[in-house]
Amino acid sequence: MTLMRFVKFTEHNDWEGETWNFWLQLDGNEEALAKLARLIRTGVDVVDDPAYEIDVEHPADESVVDALIEHMSDEGYMPEHSKVIGVLTVPDDLGEHLDALYKGQVADFFQEG
Hints:
Layout: E1 5-13, E2 18-25, H1 30-42, E3 52-61, H2 62-71, E4 81-84, E5 87-88, E6 110-111
């Protein structure tokens, strides 16, 4: 059985005073994740202290993600680590509306595949 790979999407939420890591399915979503990374880097809401980061260069195996969720995920407003599975669709205008990612809504862009 082949394990899926995931990339880390981090949201720094100043309102809640928390940082959340959403592990996004890489396999099958390579192009969409590259687009998401580009829009996050160049979006109109980007400031010196960005609310969102994505690391597409260092994927993690599913077993690592599962261990983080089980052993390292403190609960606050939402868990520190979450796994998001499915097919990612990134709207072309997301760079103009990065607030659509707020409070974990990045998961809303994934559909079961």
